[in-house]
Design brief:
single chain, about 190 residues, alpha/beta, Rossmann fold, two-stranded antiparallel ribbon, 5 helices, 11 strands, globular, binds glutamine
Length: about 190
């Protein structure tokens, strides 16, 4: 049962995630110190700048605590947050946490001007397409055996899960469609 969700508030879109959770009536806190993880059953790592978040994770001594947290709890990473969850090799100030078994290629659609929105079919919801915002989004590859694809865009996997953790290449926290956050809460509660 999700009692409390933590949103990692070091850099990036954490306020938007908080607003989504508030809209869903889910108890949440902005996490700024490792000890605050103790009270959470799910951690959201937001989009932003993966190299900056990576640096701040180490500067604020979050690396070990998040890796330990992820062994027994769920983590949900969006865009930069997804890159941090990946098992991509360390390079150029970016040191992923290796929480999920896949690789991510940063800025795979191009630069800021190549950001776009696209209609996704969600595997878990047949009602309507999800209008997803891709902002300097990554692409994923080398998906491990345990990884399930929950949404694709033009044949690219854009939402994945290994059963415990979740990740999107897009920004489900922007806009008013709460379905992705709601689905993840339901999965953790199930
Ligand atoms: N391209 C960014 C990075 O690599 C991620 C962009 C985002 O989170 N919107 O960190």
């Amino acid at each position: 049962m999700v009692r409390k969700v933590g949103v990692l508030a070091l850099q990036g879109n954490y306020i938007q995630h908080k607003r989504m959770l508030d809209n869903l009536g889910i108890n949440n806190i902005l996490v700024q110190y490792p000890r605050e993880l103790e009270k959470c059953d799910l951690l959201i790592i937001p989009g932003g700048e993966s190299t900056t978040i990576s640096k701040l994770i180490d500067r604020n001594k979050f690396r070990k605590p998040i890796m330990n947290f992820a062994q027994i709890n769920s983590v949900f990473g969006t865009c930069a947050g997804m890159i941090l969850l990946s098992s991509t090799k360390e390079a150029n100030n970016l040191k992923p946490l290796g929480v999920m078994d896949f690789k991510a290629k940063r800025n795979a659609y191009g630069r800021q001007v190549n950001s776009f929105s696209g209609n996704l079919h969600l595997e878990f919801d047949n009602s309507n397409n999800f209008k997803a915002l891709f902002i300097r989004a990554p692409k994923v590859s080398n998906l491990g055996k345990g990884i399930k694809i929950l949404a694709t865009y033009k044949k690219e996997p854009v939402m994945i899960s290994d059963g415990r953790h979740f990740a999107t290449t897009f920004h489900p926290e922007i806009g008013n469609d709460v379905r992705i956050h709601k689905y993840i809460m339901e999965q953790i509660n199930a």
